[in-house]
Structure formats: C-alpha cells, structure tokens
Design brief:
Largest sheet: 7 strands, mixed
Strand content: over 45%
Radius of gyration: 14 Å
Number of strands: 11
Shape: globular
Distance between the termini: 40 Å
Length: 127
C-alpha cells in the first residue's frame, strides 16, 4: 500500500502560479508512474499530467494545460510536483495525485489505470 499526500494548493489570481507537491510513502516510489488529475464542482475527474517511472523521462499533458503546467519527480524525496503557471479560472478544482503500479509500457491517462490516490488539494483561481 502507498500513501499519497498532496500539498501546495491555495487561492491565486488569474495569471499566477502555484506548485503542488505529492509525497509518497514506501520504498518503491521510483517504480511507479505518477499522475495528476483534477475535479471541478459538478464535473468528472479529469487527467492533467503524468510522468513515467525511472529510468524513462517521459511526461504527458492534457491539451488544456500543455505549455502552462510542468510535472516532475524527485525519486530521492519520493515526491512528484506539478508546477502550474499562467493559471486560469477554469483551472479551479481539487487536484489529486495518483500512482500506477502496473509497470505498463505506456503512460496512463485514465482514472482506472491508477491504483493509489491522495486526498486532494484545492486550487482556486480568481479572475
């Protein structure tokens, strides 16, 4: 079992930046693909970004955040990050960190492809 704890959420004006962190428990973090999802009120949880496990350096983004968000990981700290720049009001949501233990060849973008989830952190962007 892996425990994921997100932090770094908050309120910001449009155009601002936030960096989310997700700390993972356990010693196998480097073997997991990691992802970020978000859920706005009244909407389904949607894919935001994902990053491949070591040694691959591959990431993937939703079209809505491409060029504005950057996912990264520090295996020594068991932490994955989401740097969010040029934030828009439509980025307002609860952001969830997720871990995929399956060792799949590709990089998952669907909820069912992830096995462990954090509790979420709120991001609010005002216009």
């Amino acid at each position: 079992q892996v425990r994921l704890v997100e932090s770094g959420g908050g309120s910001v004006q449009a155009g601002g930046s936030l960096r989310l962190s997700c700390a993972a428990s356990g010693s196998v973090f480097s073997t997991y693909d990691m992802g970020w999802f978000r859920q706005a009120p009244g909407k389904e949880r949607e894919f935001v970004a994902a990053i491949k496990r070591s040694p691959d350096i591959i990431s993937r983004y939703a079209d809505s955040v491409k060029g504005r968000f950057t996912i990264s990981r520090d295996n020594a700290k068991n932490t994955v990050y989401l740097q969010m720049d040029s934030l828009k009001p439509e980025d307002t949501a609860i952001y969830y960190c997720a871990a995929d233990r399956s060792l799949r060849a590709g990089l998952g973008i669907l909820r069912y492809e992830y096995h462990y989830w954090g509790q979420g952190t709120q991001v609010t962007v005002s216009s």
